[in-house]
Amino acid sequence: MQASSRQVSSNQQGLHPRLAHTVRRHLQQPFRGPLAAHNEAAWQLLAGRLADDPRPLVLDSFCGTGMSTAALASAHPQHLVVGIDRSAHRLGLHPTHIEQPYLLLQAECEPLWRELVRAGRKVDFHYLLYPNPWPKARHLQRRIHGHPGFRDLLDLGGAVELRSNWALYIEEFGLAMHLAGIRGAVQAVPMGTPLTRFEAKYRASGHTLWRYRGCIR
Ligand SMILES: C[S@@+](CC[C@H](N)C(=O)[O-])C[C@H]1O[C@@H](n2cnc3c(N)ncnc32)[C@H](O)[C@@H]1O
């Protein structure tokens, strides 16, 4: 991959030196910790919906305003599409005057992944579109692949698509998936109608956008 990472400013040059160690440690240990009240409330909503809706799941983790969630619901009409974001402000920007054949939840993604895994749920598709890059080297554990919840993401299965304007983030994620035995491919996001607000913003700034696609069986 030849992309420049100048689009994102970081004190990290190249793959994080503790990436492999961190990923391996998290693969061996389940993600623990209490379920915060707002995540518990979101999980109860989701569990209730799952009990009523037998369709397979599509997750739109870190969905921001839910723009992509609406688009994905159109693209996957046979699925229940669930967008998750922790920001009430961003979710509050989602238009409410239209019918919503999807579910938007205000929560942290990682605890909800864990609850889904505990409930024995799998997903068919998992979109992770422009998560915060956390470019400072000391924030590795906040990146998806450096977080203890990475193991739950793997256990959820499905076709995974991660997009970022930071090539290194995509490379690290791809390496973490490889360490977990998952093969995938990295390529530039093709030009077209932006799927998310951030995608539109990055495109307007002339950024090169990258995606990782892999399938967890
Ligand atoms: C860069 S924005 C991208 C939003 C959207 N996917 C887009 O492309 O427009 C990252 C989003 O991740 C959300 N976020 C960050 N950490 C999160 C977490 N642990 N769980 C859920 N949402 C999180 C933020 O609130 C923010 O909306």
The CA-CA distance between the termini, in Å, is 26 Å
Physical arrangement of strands within the biggest beta sheet: 3-2-1-4-5-7-6
CATH topology: Rossmann fold
Number of strands: 7
Listed once per kind, the bound small molecules are: S-adenosylmethionine
User: How big is the Rg?
Assistant: 17 Å
Report the CATH architecture: 3-Layer(aba) Sandwich
Helix content: 25-40%
What is the H level of CATH, i.e. the homologous superfamily?
Vaccinia Virus protein VP39
Secondary-structure element pattern, one letter each: HHEHEHEHEHEHEHE
Domain module tally: 1
The secondary structure category is: alpha/beta
Largest sheet: 7 strands, mixed
Please give the CATH class.
Alpha Beta
How would you state the average pLDDT, rounded? 95
Global geometry: globular
Strand content: 15-25%
Please tally the helical runs, counting DSSP H or I stretches of 4 or more residues: 8
Task: Walk me through this protein's architecture.
- The chain has 217 residues and is α/β, with parallel strands linked by helices.
- The protein has one domain (19-30, 38-216): Vaccinia Virus protein VP39 (Rossmann fold, 3-Layer(aba) Sandwich).
- The protein has eight helices and seven strands, in the order ααβαβαβαβαβαβαβ.
- The protein has helices at residues 19-28, 37-52, 67-75, 88-92, 109-118, 150-156, 167-179, 197-204, and strands at 57-61, 80-85, 103-106, 125-129, 158-164, 184-188, 210-216.
- The longest helix is centred in the N-terminal third of the chain and has 16 residues, at 37-52.
- 40% of the residues are buried.
- The structure holds S-adenosylmethionine.
- S-adenosylmethionine binds next to strand 2, helix 5 and helix 8.
